Structure to design on (79 residues):
């Protein structure tokens, strides 16, 4: 579960509902003001333009260094 609360519609870059049931929501919560866990169950990221909340418990995180490997699909996407 997640919620995104933005102060203005202008902070939404795009919302896409594809025919294959995928959904993409892009926008900006602005510059980071704080990030914290609420009751160790919800990650709350507060920015100058809005708030992102994700149901993510502290215990669900693997707090160790992580190095992502780009897949062939990621490298070919142009992003």
């Amino acid at each position: 579960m997640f919620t995104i609360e933005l102060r203005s519609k202008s902070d939404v870059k795009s919302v896409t509902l594809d025919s294959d049931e995928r959904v993409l929501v892009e926008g900006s919560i602005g510059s980071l003001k704080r990030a914290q866990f609420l009751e160790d169950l919800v990650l709350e990221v507060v920015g100058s333009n809005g708030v992102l909340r994700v149901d993510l418990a502290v215990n669900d995180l693997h707090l160790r260094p992580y190095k992502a490997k780009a897949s062939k699909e990621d490298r070919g996407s142009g992003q």
User: Anything to note?
Assistant: The helical segments are 72-75. The chain has one helix and six strands. The chain has one domain: 2-75. The two ends are 26 Å apart (CA to CA).
